[in-house]
Amino acid sequence: MKSSKQKIIIENLIKIYGNNPRKALKMFRDGATKDYILERTGNVVGVADVSLEIGEGELFVVMGLSGSGKSTLVRCINSLIPATSGNIYIDGEDIVHVSDERMRELRRTQVTMVFQRFGLFPHKTVAENVAYGLKVRGVEKKQRRQKALETLEVVGLAQWADYHPSKLSGGMQQRVGLARALATDAPILLMDEAFSALDPLIRREMQDELIRLQQELHKTIVFISHDIQEALKLADRLAVMKDGYVVQLGTPEEIINNPADDYIRAFIQDVNRASVIKVGAIARNPNSFMLESKLVKAAMIEMSAEDREQKYVLDGDGKPVGLVTAARLAKALEVGENDIAKAMARDFPKVDKTTKLEEIFPLCQGGEAIAVVDGKGKLAGVVEQSDVFANMVN
Ligand SMILES: Nc1ncnc2c1ncn2[C@@H]1O[C@H](COP(=O)(O)OP(=O)(O)OP(=O)(O)O)[C@@H](O)[C@H]1O
Ligand SMILES: [Mg+2]
């Protein structure tokens, strides 16, 4: 056992396909390339010495071109294929060396997989499909049905419970596949190109759905994709694979801001930065006033000394309650108003720091600095129109 807060730990994982993996492994360790090993031995290096740690509750994306080793990597995580060398721990348990029986139990209760082509049984109803994992686990019929209906509710398909899958569209069938995985309550979801067979529009809908579900469910998700937009949209962090190796690991912002090499640069060249970068990443130090401690006149002097046009006013908890501008303050003084609470504008643009830049364009129009707040509603920073535009350029 290994103790760690990490949900999945992969250490020096190597997977070689073919009839002489030991020989190929030795060559690989001696420094031979994938191509050379293939040529000499006919063995294929699927995953080449990958080490990764995936945190509990993380939506971790593995991205890369066809043949880069993505599927091989996830199949090793649930032992659908055995690793040639290296260690994989789930909740600290070494799964490369567990018994088959224990691994089956882990697949029933801990690590579940959502397939690309739905994998639904055509002769079973939607509810029976969703309940299937529970049946395998020996849950009794009434309870299974109950759980299946609850989970179908979660993915918005409750009214389809008693239909057969063929009556549903591709997107709906994929939701059933997702519901089947969710119904098991397994904390780890492996999704190998789960949305790739869907039409672009439905696919985007499913991506939004997954993000929404994840906010409620906090699963540990390993999501495989060869689509960079999808990867950047979904990922908390992503690993980019090439020829079996992980060539870069980071948050979407880190990858888009600092691509490690030309392979990754080629991937991201057409990516719309504003759909990736979160407003929290570009927000400036807010430099605000406290509501209780400022008079209009003092605020004006301070703002003029700092050469600032606008500033946020915070309550005792650090939450923004108003916005003052130099013009507004001057106007207040003109009518003899020295209370900042009366002079400030209570209607101001406010966004959560995790909001993507493209979503705040409409708020930039007014010229007011946008208040960026953290999860508790406290002011974390401000952004102005010029900050937003400066960060859209590649
Ligand atoms: N069963 C197998 N036998 C032999 N070689 C295999 C097998 N499965 C995969 N490979 C090889 O291992 C390498 C990695 O394949 P893998 O399927 O993991 O890639 P992938 O990134 O998932 O690709 P794709 O995007 O096409 O699904 C490839 O070179 C592939 O040809
Ligand atoms: Mg694959």
Describe this structure in words.
The protein is an alpha/beta fold and about 400 residues long. The chain has 2 domains: about 5-110 and about 185-270, P-loop containing nucleotide triphosphate hydrolases (Rossmann fold), CATH 3.40.50.300; about 280-390, CBS-domain, CATH 3.10.580. Helices cover about 40% and strands about 25% of the residues. It is built from 17 helices and 16 strands. It has a 6-stranded mixed sheet with strand order 6-7-8-3-9-10, sandwiched between helices. A 4-stranded antiparallel sheet has the order 2-1-4-5, sandwiched between helices. Strand 12 and strand 13 form a beta hairpin. Helix 5 (about 125-135) runs parallel beside helix 7 and helix 6 crosses helix 7 (about 170-185). The chain is globular. Adenosine-5'-triphosphate binds next to strand 2 and helix 3.
Ligands bound to this protein structure: adenosine-5'-triphosphate, magnesium ion
What's the CATH class of the largest domain, please?
Alpha Beta
- How many whole angstroms does the radius of gyration measure? 26 Å
Question: Strand portion, in percent?
Answer: 15-25%
Which geometry do the CA atoms define?
globular
Gap between N and C termini: 46 Å
- How many strand units? 16
Helical coverage, percent range: 25-40%
* CATH homolog superfamily of the largest domain: P-loop containing nucleotide triphosphate hydrolases
Q: Give the strand order, joined by hyphens, for the main sheet.
A: 6-7-8-3-9-10
Can you count the helices?
Answer: 17
Which structural class do you get from the secondary structure elements?
alpha/beta
- Per CATH, the architecture of the largest domain is 3-Layer(aba) Sandwich
Structural domain tally: 2
Q: Could you say what the CATH topology of the largest domain is called? A: Rossmann fold
Write down the overall mean pLDDT. 90
Largest beta sheet, briefly? 6 strands, mixed
